[in-house]
């Protein structure tokens, strides 16, 4: 497994013919040299350059040979904070979920409930 780590932010800038990378299932691929060799054309690669291409890539249903060839272009992976949860629906369909920030404690209903209780106690104490 490659160990070089990238952030989505730094990859976003690598979206040109001179430097083209894309993300697939949290792994990072550099396809700068491959642009003109891609059987699917350079346009589609440039359209996802700098971005997360997981859903688009999976929808194409690349052949086994294509997947083998792809390994040559692997340069690393996303830093853990930027990883998504990749759910495979079937061979050609994938759903990408950003690790839900809404599940963090400060935006959960439990936090709001707790805040409500604290405020109630506080007001009762001050004005009661
Ligand atoms: C290093 C990465 C990639 C490699 C090695 C690769 C390789 C290939 C190969 C060998 C084909 C011919 C068909 C096949 O064998 O499946 C193909 C077709 C295609 N690829 Fe890729 N591909 C890569 C990345 C991508 C990405 C990121 C996208 C779009 C998000 C994409 C979109 C397509 C499309 C649209 C076709 C044409 C399918 C068709 O003609 O029906 N490819 N690719």
UniProtKB/TrEMBL annotation:
SMART domains: Cyt-b5
Record protein name field: Cytochrome b5 heme-binding domain-containing protein
Record organism: Parnassius mnemosyne
GO cellular-component term (any): membrane
Family: Belongs to the cytochrome b5 family.
Location in or out of the cell: Membrane
Superkingdom in the source lineage: Eukaryota
A GO molecular function held by the record: metal ion binding
Assigned keywords, A-Z: Heme, Iron, Membrane, Metal-binding, Transmembrane, Transmembrane helix
Predominant subcellular localization, coarse grouping: membrane
């Amino acid at each position: 497994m490659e160990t070089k780590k990238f952030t989505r932010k730094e990859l976003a800038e690598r979206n040109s013919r001179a430097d083209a990378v894309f993300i697939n299932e949290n792994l990072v691929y550099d396809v700068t040299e491959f642009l003109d060799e891609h059987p699917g054309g350079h346009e589609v690669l440039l359209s996802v350059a700098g971005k997360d291409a997981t859903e688009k890539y999976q929808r194409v249903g690349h052949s086994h040979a294509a997947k083998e060839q792809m390994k040559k272009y692997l340069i690393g992976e996303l830093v853990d904070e930027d990883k998504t949860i990749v759910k495979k629906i079937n061979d050609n369909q994938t759903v990408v979920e950003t690790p839900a920030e809404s599940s963090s404690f400060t935006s959960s209903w439990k936090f709001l409930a707790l805040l409500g209780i604290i405020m109630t106690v506080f007001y009762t104490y001050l004005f009661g």
